[in-house]
Each structure stands twice: as structure tokens, then as C-alpha cells.
Design brief:
The chain is an alpha+beta fold. The chain folds into two domains: 1-356, no CATH class; 367-400, no CATH class. It has twelve helices and eight strands. It has helices at residues 2-34, 39-69, 81-94, 128-133, 136-151, 154-189, 195-238, 241-253, 291-299, 307-318, 327-330, 351-365, and strands at residues 72-74, 101-105, 112-116, 122-127, 369-372, 378-381, 389-391, 398-400. The strands form three sheets. Strands 1-2-4-3 form a four-stranded mixed β-sheet, with helices on both faces. The protein has a two-stranded antiparallel ribbon with strand order 5-6. Strands 7-8 form a two-stranded antiparallel ribbon. Strand 7 (389-391) and strand 8 form a beta hairpin. Helix 3 (81-94) packs across helix 5 and helix 6 (154-189) runs antiparallel to helix 7. The longest helix has 44 residues, at 195-238. The radius of gyration is 25 Å and the shape is globular.
Length: 401
């Protein structure tokens, strides 16, 4: 899929140019607002410097910033062995040059995203709720989808675009708030400067309002196709589209809010985490394709799991022959048969077991220690517990820490 990677790079360049122009225009008119003589040039210079700094920050630390914004914490294999096993499986299936780092977000809302600079420096982050709710096939489908973003070089695009979008939103908010608090004083001192200043002020306000919207629309328009391609890649890697389809259903039906998500990080997730918005937003402003449509496409892949099979299912569900898979992907003639699901995929959902597993995962991420007492009680020791011994509340056994 090198054609797809080259296409992604071209789209990324277009996105950065579009966001860069938006940032420069925003800087120019904000500068004019504060200084009608020299402020425009100063604003452009400052905007260009910010853009340069942003590119450097995004390249070297963008993924760290996004992970910190998401309250994600890097974990080791002993925290959740099954997750690491699945990530390693997808790393081998996708021929990634390095094992992605694994992060867990302590949230009950099931979701996941990938970030990083390149396949050699990639990260897969999942929520505790996802780990507790998904069976192995579903977890594999989600991890394979995020691995697809890594293979297709989407992670660099999403990281860069997320940082730039965040700064555009921040600058716009800072300007509108500054203008609001200083409006009374400026209206008195600038009352004799004529209509030119009023026009500049109107343009600056309009741009401050529209710039984040334009940047988001540009971001979303390019991001949406990537979700279909990542779904297609996941189906190919797992040979079991139903796993991802079932996972998408569970994530979409969750009523839990992912509190750390915002408009900047939302497009990175496998399903829009901003509850109540993603399902009702128009196609123009949605961060993701309709979930129901993605599920129908995956479940329509009856002939196999290669890229051509996904394109055929896509065209059938959408009722259009418009290509979603690049030409190199359509040349994929390798027969990839569909496999059957694992036995646990038919297990009934156990709410109590889910709550226990969710609690254990969240506590493990928070550095709790666990001791299994002979009486059957599992003792959960918080990280700030100061004593070197703990007594079992059921049988009274003393355990050394």
C-alpha cells in the first residue's frame, strides 16, 4: 500500500499548508487589531514562528502531549498480558519494525487510539473499559484497526494536525477573550480612528470565530477516509471482520463519557468519544464515518478479507462504485480466507465480572498491588500504603509486603 502512504503524505502536506495559512491570517488580523500600523506584519511573523515551533514540537513530542492530554499511562506486560499478546500478534502480522508502546487510559468508556511519529515510534492506547468489555476477537479487531493507522502512516498526520488544530483554537479563544475584556477601554480610546479600525476589528472577530471551524472541517474531511482504510487493514490482518464489527457496536452503545477527550483528540479515537454528538453530526462535520455503516461494510465481507473484498463490500453498502481503496490495494489478488471466531466470542456478558475486571485494571494502572489470600480473598493494596504487613479482613492471615 505504498500508494496509500504517498497519498497520505500529500494530503498531510495540503493539510499543514491549509492550517498554516489559517494560522498566518489569524495572526495578521489579530496583530492589526492591536496595532493598525505594524501589527499585521508582527502578527504574521509570530504566527510563522509558532508554526515552526509547532512542527518541531509535533515531530519530537507531539505524541507525548496528546497522551498526557488523554491521561494515558504506559504499562508493562504484567498489567494486562492479553493486551500485549494481541499487540505483538498484530505487530508480527503487519511486519512492523518495532513493537508499539502500550498505554492504558483509566476510563470506563471503551475506546482506543494510536499515535506516534512513525512505525518505529508508535503507541497504541486503550481504555480500561475497552479491556474489561471486549473478548479476544474484539480486542484484536480494535488493535488491528489502530495498527492499520500505524501502517498507513496516519499517526504522524493525526499527531501533527491535532497539535496545530489545538493551537488555532487556543489563539482564537485567547483573542476573543482578550477583546471582550478590553472592549470598553478600547472603544473609548479608539473612538476617533474611523471606520478602518472597525472593519479590521470585524474581520479579526470573524476570522477568530471561523478559523477553528475551518481547521476542524479540513481536519475531519481528510481524516474520515482513513477510518475506512484502517477498518479494511484490520479485516485483512485478523481475517475476522466480525471481531471489529462487534467491537464497534459495543463502543458505540456505551453510555460512559470519556472525560479526557476533546475536539482536538476526538478524531484520533476509533469511535468518536464525544457522546451525543458523533451520531447526530452531519457528514461534513463528523470526525468519523457513520458507525452503523462501518459495521455493515465489515459484515458484508463474505468473500474474503483482502482489500478488494473490502472495496466490494463498501460499494455494496454505500450503493456507489467510488473507490475507497487505492489502485495498489485493488491489485491485491491474494486470497485471504475468513476465519471463525474464538469460542469465547459467544460468551454472555457478565456485569459483575466486568466490574471486577474493570476495577482491577484501573487499580493496576494506578500501581496497586494484589495479594491472593488462601481464603479466596484478593487484597488490593494502594500505592501509598505505608505498612510492611497487611491483614486479611476475612481470615486474619498476615501477609508481608
Amino acid at each position: 500500500m505504498w500508494e496509500l502512504i504517498r497519498l497520505n503524505r500529500r494530503k498531510s502536506i495540503l493539510l499543514f499548508i491549509g492550517m498554516g495559512v489559517t494560522l498566518v491570517l489569524l495572526g495578521y488580523f489579530i496583530g492589526l487589531y492591536f496595532d493598525p500600523v505594524k501589527g499585521g506584519v508582527a502578527g504574521v511573523v509570530i504566527a510563522l514562528l509558532i508554526t515552526l515551533i509547532l512542527n518541531l514540537v509535533s515531530y519530537f513530542s507531539g505524541s507525548k502531549i496528546l497522551l498526557q492530554m488523554s491521561n494515558a499511562k504506559e504499562v508493562t506486560p504484567d498489567v494486562h498480558p492479553r493486551l500485549f499478546n494481541v499487540v505483538e500478534e498484530m505487530k508480527l502480522a503487519a511486519h512492523l519494525p518495532a513493537m508499539p508502546k502500550v498505554y492504558i487510559i483509566n476510563s470506563e468508556a471503551p475506546n482506543a487510539f494510536a499515535t506516534g511519529r512513525d512505525p518505529e515510534n508508535a503507541v497504541i492506547a486503550v481504555t480500561a473499559g475497552l479491556l474489561a468489555q471486549m473478548n479476544r476477537d474484539e480486542l484484536q479487531g480494535v488493535v488491528a484497526h489502530e495498527t492499520g493507522h500505524i501502517i498507513n502512516r496516519d499517526i504522524r498526520f493525526l499527531t501533527y494536525a491535532g497539535i496545530m488544530l489545538g493551537v488555532i483554537v487556543l489563539l482564537s479563544q485567547m483573542f476573543t477573550r482578550t477583546m471582550f475584556y478590553s472592549s470598553v477601554g478600547r472603544s473609548r480610546s479608539d473612538s476617533g480612528k474611523g471606520q478602518g479600525q472597525i472593519i479590521i476589528l470585524a474581520v479579526a472577530i470573524l476570522l477568530a470565530i471561523l478559523a477553528p471551524i475551518f481547521a476542524q472541517l479540513l481536519y475531519f474531511a481528510i481524516s474520515r477516509k482513513r477510518e475506512y482504510l484502517a477498518d479494511a487493514t484490520a479485516a485483512r490482518l485478523t481475517r475476522y471482520p466480525e471481531g471489529l464489527a462487534s467491537a464497534l457496536e459495543k463502543i458505540a452503545s456505551s453510555t460512559q463519557d470519556l472525560e479526557t477527550a476533546n475536539k482536538v483528540t476526538a478524531p484520533m479515537y476509533i469511535v468518536n468519544p464525544l457522546k451525543g454528538k458523533g451520531m447526530r453530526m452531519s457528514d461534513l462535520t463528523s470526525t468519523h464515518p457513520p458507525i452503523s455503516e462501518r459495521i455493515r461494510i465489515l459484515r458484508s465481507m463474505s468473500g474474503g478479507a483482502n482489500f478488494r473484498n473490502y472495496q466490494e463490500a463498501f460499494s455494496s453498502v454505500r450503493g456507489t462504485g467510488s473507490p475507497i481503496i487505492p489502485g495498489s490495494g485493488m491489485a491485491d489478488t491474494e486470497t485471504i480466507g475468513l476465519r471463525t471466531g474464538l469460542t469465547e466470542s459467544g460468551a454472555e456478558f457478565d456485569k459483575r465480572q466486568y466490574n471486577r475486571e474493570l476495577g482491577d485494571i484501573m487499580k493496576t494502572v494506578d500501581d496497586y498491588r494484589f495479594i491472593q489470600c488462601d481464603c479466596g480473598i484478593k487484597l488490593k493494596i494502594p500505592p501509598l500504603f505505608s505498612s510492611d504487613r497487611v491483614e486479611c479482613p476475612k481470615c486474619g492471615t498476615i501477609h508481608s509486603l
